[in-house]
Amino acid sequence: MKIEDVMTRRVVAARSDTDLSHVARLMWDNDCGCVPVVDAEDKVVGILTDRDLCMSANFAGRPLRELRAAGCMAGDLLTCRPEDAPLAVANKMGARKVRRVPVTDAGGRLVGLVSIGDLLGAAASAPAKDKKALQAALLGALTTICARPRREEVAPVPPTGKRAAPPAKSKASAKKRAKV
């Protein structure tokens, strides 16, 4: 079994100058959670997820129509080839903590997309000799992807040791309060 046997072939894509409201519409109309970004030769240059759109709009404080794909796409992306083995791709997805991977030809042009869901379907119908290894790789990938970060990765740990004592009140201010 190869990635080309399980990948989604009909994939919508955007260009780097596409506004994010159009990307959101592509996601909605095509019921997908990510859109690859391609250049004029259809070579993959990035990928956008629905989360990327939300976070970009939130942090920019601007509507999606004013933001461009190039400003929020992930450029350091994982891709695979149609002839790759699902097991190898599942292991790479776990290592990079990604749920979807663009599939490219030898020239880097977009030819499909493979998701964790596609690979789960492949595992269900895989030959017995490949089934257990693929299931184990997918379980490992999902465990890594869905793991909660440790507390110190989310918020700084408060310093240990004695807390500073509040400043002492002066006798003059105590006398003023006593008169009132």
Q: Could you characterize what this model shows?
A:
There is one protein chain. By secondary structure, the protein is of the alpha+beta class. It has a single domain (3-147), classed as CBS-domain (Roll). The protein contains seven helices and four strands. It has helices at 20-30, 50-60, 86-96, 116-125, 128-146, 151-154, 171-179, and strands at residues 34-38, 44-49, 100-104, 110-115. The strands form two sheets. A two-stranded antiparallel sheet has the order 1-2. Strands 3-4 form a two-stranded antiparallel ribbon. It is globular. The chain starts with 19 loop residues before the first helix and ends with a helix. The mean pLDDT is 84.
Primary descriptors:
about 180 residues; CBS-domain; about 10% strand; two-stranded antiparallel ribbon; globular; single chain; alpha+beta
Protein topology:
Elements: H1 20-30, E1 34-38, E2 44-49, H2 50-60, H3 86-96, E3 100-104, E4 110-115, H4 116-125, H5 128-146, H6 151-154, H7 171-179
Antiparallel strand pairs: 1-2, 3-4
